[in-house]
Specification:
Helix 8 runs antiparallel to helix 11. The longest helix is centred in the middle third of the chain and has 24 residues. Strand 12 and strand 13 form a beta hairpin. The chain contains 16 helices and 13 strands. It has 546 residues and is an alpha+beta fold. Strands 1, 4, 5, 6 and 7 form a five-stranded mixed β-sheet that branches. The two termini are 25 Å apart.
Length: 546
């Protein structure tokens, strides 16, 4: 900011670290494939009894930019902070999307303007590149809080919902990018020190002019630009950052605009709706903070209210993943998930989060799921279910026990008799509300798979395929959802996109097949190719060409 590095001190889970740093969830291996160099490991002295002393706390900016060991410390801290935030919000331990307990991090992986998560390599790779500025400085993506949090979110979301990386629809394609942007940006806002530096006005002045707190002014500050450094260097879309979602104008039909069918552009619609919601909530909280003198407010209170609003929205955004279907996700599904999980944890919405989410999402063309209740939240399960053939204690953690429950209740759960059903996970969770209220739930995810020829899909289920698709071609269709059990083992919600239970399901499957055919996804692709890597590189190159 203003030629200076914006710094913040963050808390991470306490653990014994090996050089790298290498901990129980993150292993930093600083190998540069372009230069064929293995950099020295960062060795952070740590003890369970003595607080960690940051060796770079008083270091000059030039040292932070030049020392690879600080770069390694930086990526470790932000990755672990992001993981800890997910585990707090979800109320349980969270696995990576790849195999193994430890995720490998390469701070200087290659000389390229890119950064990406790779499930196949069990790693996140960060690139570096030459600046366009006259000084020809090197830009390190591993020093950007936003970029690191974004890529870490990809790795975590892949562990929570592995099928969200599969092609299905424009919404699901854009969700990984949009959700990762939301987490990254709200993570920055939850750091009061960073917000204080970027708000505007005189940082040393304890007061801030009310005119600097108008919505238009707030959305133009540098805090809203994801990957600001990379965006500026690559001439990113919409101003000074790679993505300036918040500057999208409400009221336009983005979801039916062909330009916004592209994955990154689609994701920006979700980000815009979330960040407009954040600004509205922040300003609503500030209305309770009166002016002190001549239209000014106390700067520390403004920062505190912004950080609290961001923190709560971030927690909502993460918790909503548990309340999403496991396949064929739409932005409408995600909005209903947001509203429902917040109502469960915070029934008394005194700051109007849910009302503002509804309004801001609607302004960008996103309305709740057609399967939701009148207020946009998911309908509670009211079916007569069989519990007598399953064991309560086992239902809290055993996939086989939950599958028995699903099998005994397949008619009530509208699963029918077709396809292969698999329970993917069973996750006990403990969610803590701002007032200390504790909500205990068990979240079980399942998927239903059916493969038929295109002609059979039409004859048996009424599912259409485009004329370009051969009638003999075998096509896989999916159904699946989340089962939310209360602390007594009773099913509260079944949040699902069914295989072909209703005309809406048939229409969704037909639209999915058309989308796959139009994008060349009906033909199997090489699974070793990292989709996120290619997606991020293509976006960077497209921005550079502008």
């Amino acid at each position: 900011m203003n030629g200076k590095i914006v710094r913040a001190t963050v808390d991470v889970p306490a653990e014994q670290l090996l050089p790298g740093p290498r901990g129980y969830r993150v292993n930093v291996i600083d190998f540069d494939a372009t230069a064929n160099v293995l950099y020295d490991q960062a060795d952070i002295p740590c003890s369970l009894d003595v607080p960690v002393a940051d060796p770079y706390a008083d270091a000059d900016d030039s040292v932070l930019l030049a020392d690879p060991r600080f770069h390694a410390q930086n990526v470790y801290a932000i990755v672990m902070r992001t993981l800890a935030r997910f585990e707090f919000a979800l109320g349980r331990r969270v696995a990576w999307g790849c195999e193994g307990h430890q995720l490998h991090i390469a701070p200087h992986a290659f000389a390229e303007a890119n950064a990406f998560y790779s499930r196949e390599d069990r790693a996140i790779f960060f690139g570096y590149f030459k600046s366009r500025r006259p000084d020809d400085a090197t830009v390190f993506s591993c020093l950007s809080h936003d970029v690191i949090a974004h890529e870490t979110t990809h790795a975590i979301l892949d562990g929570l919902r592995s099928r969200f990386l599969e092609p299905s629809s424009p919404d699901q394609a854009g969700f990984h990018e949009g959700f990762s942007d939301v987490v990254a940006l709200l993570s920055v806002f939850s750091l009061p020190g960073v917000v204080e530096r970027i708000l505007g006005g005189s940082p040393g002045d304890p007061l801030i002019a009310a005119k600097l707190l108008e919505k238009k002014r707030l959305i133009e500050t540098g805090l809203f630009g994801l990957a600001v450094e990379m965006g500026q260097e690559l001439s990113g879309v919409r101003g000074q950052a790679l993505r300036r979602s918040v500057k999208m104008v409400p009221g336009k039909d983005y979801l039916n605009d062909p330009e916004y069918a592209e994955e990154h552009m689609r994701g920006e619609v979700l980000v815009a709706a979330m960040l407009h919601s954040f600004v509205d909530v922040w300003l609503a909280r500030l209305e309770r903070v009166g002016t002190i003198e001549r239209g000014k407010k106390h700067r520390a209170l403004v920062v505190e209210e912004g950080a609290r609003a961001a923190s709560h929205l971030l927690t909502m955004a993460i918790r909503a993943i548990d309340y999403c279907p496991t396949v064929d996700l739409s932005f409408a599904d995600y909005l209903s998930a947001l509203l429902t999980v917040d109502r469960e944890v915070v029934p008394d919405d005194q700051f109007g989060y849910r009302e503002r989410l509804l309004g801001c999402f609607a302004a960008f063309g996103i309305t709740p799921s057609p399967n939701a209740d009148g207020d946009g939240t998911w309908l509670r399960c009211d079916s007569e279910l069989v519990y007598s053939r399953t064991h309560f204690d086992s239902m809290l953690r055993d996939k086989e026990e939950v599958f028995r429950f699903v099998w005994e209740n397949r008619d009530a759960l509208k699963l029918g008799t077709l396809g292969y059903i698999e329970v993917l996970s069973v996750r006990p969770s403990m969610r803590i509300a701002p007032d200390g209220f504790v909500l205990r739930e068990t979240v079980a995810e399942y998927v239903q798979v059916l493969t038929l020829e295109a002609q059979e899909l039409k004859e048996l289920l009424g599912i259409d395929s485009p004329a370009s698709v051969e009638q003999w071609r075998r096509i896989k269709i999916l159904g699946g959802g989340a089962l939310i059990f209360d602390e007594y083992g009773q099913l509260k919600y079944q949040i699902a996109n069914h295989l072909a239970d209703s005309p809406g399901d048939v229409a969704r499957q037909s639209a999915r097949i058309a989308y796959l055919a139009a994008n060349g996804n009906l033909t199997p692709t090489d699974p070793s190719r990292s989709r996120i890597a290619a997606l991020h590189l293509a976006r960077s190159q497209a921005s550079e060409a502008l």
